[in-house]
């Protein structure tokens, strides 16, 4: 599958190479430059992109920085970084204003917080803005015209799927089935759930309902039934703090926890403290680092699923920003900005985890990224007249763990 990703990008590269070679001619110094894609006339205007993260450290942050910094020379672009508040819209507006004042040409923002005001600031300053690891659902449902119809907002690459197209519940159930197929002599037949509050993450409640529906449908024909405990509001809804130790008494006899909340930080530590990490499995979203030591058949084998969105999905807003800065757009560019759902790296086997550990998300090594700087350049409309918006979307929305193998 990794070869398939490379083949797709190679086709885009061939398009820009042919254009570049025709421009250079077939003799003299121009003919000596076979890397027309990275030539100065194709690199675009010198520019600066600000990137506003939702946290100042962690695997995703460090990997994203490594990915971008490695592309700086090829894209003729510098990157500046800042960190947003997760609770204070005023602080976030100030952070964006500081980036604008520093002379950035574009901004990639990982939070949908006070976005209408932020986009207005960007428009007034002639700065373009896009999103990454965020569904911008508040703006999409409450400020669509002010944000998605604004010419200075280029759209966002979502951390997974949009709230109106939830799939993680089914994905979690599929991981459970794969576990049971591998462990037919000792399948998991009793599970419980964990989510964050619906007011903050409505998609998690929908995912939990989707999982329960998948179990019910499965049980209609299954020889070995699966029991899923009903959501207990007192213990199963994690108010952004570790789960209460009474969780296990409320869910006596469970063999696994399906955590749509961030299980590494809010569930696993309590499992360890109560000694339940050795007898209960954890299927969860997110990956903070260190899970691999107790994943699959390793260590205590507590973790049986982790899933994350590839850092390479930041390519989507980056390419669109660079196009805007260079005064071009794709021929098939939609009129309004879009939010693009992204497949995820779902690790639910030793093989999956081994493949994931070779990706930039885990290593923070730019050479382990799925896209090279030249390939990203060739996704732009100014460097490659044959590049399209639909190609860009496909390249970043279909990255799964199979892409790493």
β-strand percent reads 5-15%
SS content category:
alpha/beta
Q: Assign a percent range to the helix content.
A: 25-40%
Low-confidence stretches: 15-40
Task: Report how far the terminal alpha carbons are from each other.
Answer: 6 Å
Write down the overall mean pLDDT. 91
Oligomerization state: single chain
How large is the radius of gyration?
A: 23 Å
Strand elements, count: 12
Helix count, per DSSP? 18
| Largest sheet strand order | 2-1-3-4-5-11
Helix-strand topology string: HHEHHEHEHEHHEHEHEHEHHEEHEEHHHH
Shape: globular
Q: What characterizes the major β-sheet?
A: 6 strands, parallel
Give your account of this protein's structure.
With 405 residues, the protein is an alpha/beta fold. It is 40% helix and 15% strand. The chain contains 18 helices and twelve strands. It is globular and about 60 Å long. Helix 5 (89-101) runs parallel beside helix 6 (115-125) and helix 9 (168-182) packs across helix 10 (202-219). Mean pLDDT is 91; it is low at 15-40. A six-stranded parallel β-sheet has the order 2-1-3-4-5-11, with helices on both faces.
């Amino acid at each position: 599958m990794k070869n398939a990703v490379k083949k797709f990008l190679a086709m885009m590269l061939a398009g820009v190479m042919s254009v570049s070679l025709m421009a250079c001619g077939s003799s003299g110094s121009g003919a000596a430059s076979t890397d027309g894609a990275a030539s100065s006339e194709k690199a675009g205007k010198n520019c600066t992109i600000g990137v506003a993260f939702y946290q100042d450290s962690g695997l995703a942050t460090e990997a994203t920085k490594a990915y971008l910094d490695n592309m700086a020379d090829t894209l003729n672009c510098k990157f500046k970084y800042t960190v947003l508040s997760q609770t204070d819209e005023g602080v976030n507006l100030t952070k964006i204003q500081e980036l604008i004042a520093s002379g950035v040409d574009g901004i990639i923002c990982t939070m949908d917080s006070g976005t209408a005001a932020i986009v207005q600031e960007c428009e007034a300053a002639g700065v373009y803005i896009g999103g990454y690891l965020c569904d911008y659902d508040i703006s999409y449902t409450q400020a669509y015209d002010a944000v998605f119809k604004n010419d200075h907002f280029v759209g966002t690459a979502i951390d997974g799927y949009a709230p109106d197209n939830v799939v993680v519940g089914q994905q979690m159930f599929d991981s459970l089935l794969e576990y049971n197929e591998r462990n037919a002599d000792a399948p998991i037949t009793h599970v419980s759930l964990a989510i964050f509050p619906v007011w903050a993450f409505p998609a998690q409640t929908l995912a939990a309902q989707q999982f329960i529906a998948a179990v019910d449908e499965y049980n209609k024909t299954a020889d070995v039934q699966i029991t899923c405990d009903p959501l207990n509001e007192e213990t199963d809804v994690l108010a952004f703090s570790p789960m209460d130790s009474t969780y296990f008494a409320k869910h006596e006899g469970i063999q696994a926890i399906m955590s749509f909340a961030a299980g590494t930080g809010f569930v696993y530590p309590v499992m360890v403290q109560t000694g339940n990490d050795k007898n209960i499995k954890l299927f969860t979203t997110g990956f903070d680092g260190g899970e691999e030591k107790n994943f699959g058949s390793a260590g205590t084998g507590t973790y049986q699923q982790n899933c994350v969105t590839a850092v390479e999905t930041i390519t989507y807003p980056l390419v669109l920003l660079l196009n805007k800065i260079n005064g071009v757009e794709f021929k098939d560019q939609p009129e309004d900005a879009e939010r693009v759902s992204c497949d995820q790296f779902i690790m639910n086997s030793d093989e999956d985890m081994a493949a994931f550990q070779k990706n930039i998300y885990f290593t923070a090594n730019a050479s382990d990224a799925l896209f090279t700087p030249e390939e990203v350049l060739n996704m732009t409309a100014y460097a490659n007249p044959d590049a399209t918006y639909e190609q860009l979307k496909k390249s970043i929305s279909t990255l799964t763990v199979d892409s790493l193998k």
